[in-house]
Amino acid sequence: MATLTKTQPRTATASRETGGYPDGHAPVHNYLREPARTIWSWMTTVDHKRIGLMYLVSVSAAFAAGGILALLVRLELFTVGETIMGPDAYNQVFTLHGIVMVFLFIVPSIPASLGNFLLPIMIGAKDVAFPKLNLASFYIYGIGAIIALTGLLFGGVDTGWTFYTPYSKETVDGVLFMGLGVFVMGFSSILTGLNFIVTIHKMRAPGMTWNRMPLFLWSIYATSIVQILATPVIGITMVLLFLERVLQIGIFDPALGGDPVLFQHFFWFYSHPAVYIMILPAFGVISELMGTFSRQRVYGYRAVALSSVAIALLGFLVWGHHMFTSGQSPVSSVIFSLITFLIGIPSGIKIFNWVWTMYKGSVWLQTPMLYALSFLFLFTIGGVTGIMVGALAADIHLHDTYFVVAHFHYVMMGGTVVAMLGGLHYWWPKMTGRLYNETIGKVSALLVFLGFNMTFLIQFIMGSQGMPRRGFLGPRPRPPARSVQRDLVPPQGQALAGQPVGRRHPGVDARDHAAGPPQLPPHAARHPRSVRLQRRPLRRWRRAGRRHRRPGPGRDRRRSADRALR
Q: Are 99 and 208 in contact (CB under 8 A)?
């Protein structure tokens, strides 16, 4: 009894100090408030959760900026000709839109934000392998973004986000800063990938084998491989472009003995694997959402996991399908086309396994699951159209048209961004300790799905009909109805000395143009409509051996009106 009376006060004291929790069961400290809530504590933190949130805020700001630039582009193309900006400003705006969206937002979006926050938690580690290197990667990303945006003060960039030579060598000096900024941000991507690979290999908790890792970690692991192997190529390419502009070394400029197609090989050797840097983490997010909201373990776990690695490796072998029209050999084009078809197999494995998971499970239609279903629809469209532009015959027609623009946005925005939104809703309570409004979340998911399709689905049709992308004037205006007055006016700038000029009405000689303003024929002055009706075919005949097509009632009325005018 004496022992009990001595321990009771200590237990009561411990309960008051821990807020009523028993000894050893007090909640872990809140990373948002401890060790301090000052700006300096956030700037110097090595906590992977805080660094992940700082990345999330940064990429969200880049996403907002890129979205505003996209609105300016669409607003300019709302009407034919100049609407809110001139051609030079338009080129700079859509170039900046691409650079901000690709290098500042999509590439670091899911790996740097959700990956940093969740990877150590999922493997049972206290933090990543190199916490200080993790913080350094964030600051390198910020420094590279500042250097890139400094190019706006030196004339901007109007080359497109691909920086194609030789134009990028001859244009304004803003290209130097943009290229240098991309080079610096590449180090951030490399260091982050290295940190993740070491963490997954060396810091998994006991019992966390490769076959038990969450599928999100498999996608992050495959993404890190691509980051380490591909990013140095774009860095070297930007350095070579910088040296060529500054020191006039002939690398890409044909005037100096260089080869501009070599730049395309270097650029796309990085940029196509970079597509998988963007989309592979999204695959991991969707795998987590499918398993949770289907209340079923993802079907074919090992196949889904290994397909991420297969996509990462095959992604290095298909850069040439961006260059079917660049003059590369037919044999190379055929090989790249076949490998492009091959890379669709591991992507299809994921799609079918997710669908089978839903079929075998019990689907719970919450906001994250709505984003996952949107991803399935949008990414499938983007993937199928990717196979289409991977075919040689189709790509020759569709290259540099709005079809490619729609395909790219269905993969990147309809894939990566939609998956990121679903992941944010899914892990939001874990990250903030607060719940979101489910009704507002569902309405937002529906609006994102409808708005995206209304914006980009029509671009497949525009591109298939030959509308080129990056055009300032927008769609070609529909030609007005032909009339006698237009046929009589000669084209501007052509000689009139007794030569047939343009198209003219029968019976009007070319000498009449030199004599003065063209005069209408007498019957055209009395009945101008009748002359136009004469130019319309009153009957349409099928090919030889086929039956005659009977004219409809509207055609009969036009014939009667024409006879009455005569």
A: no
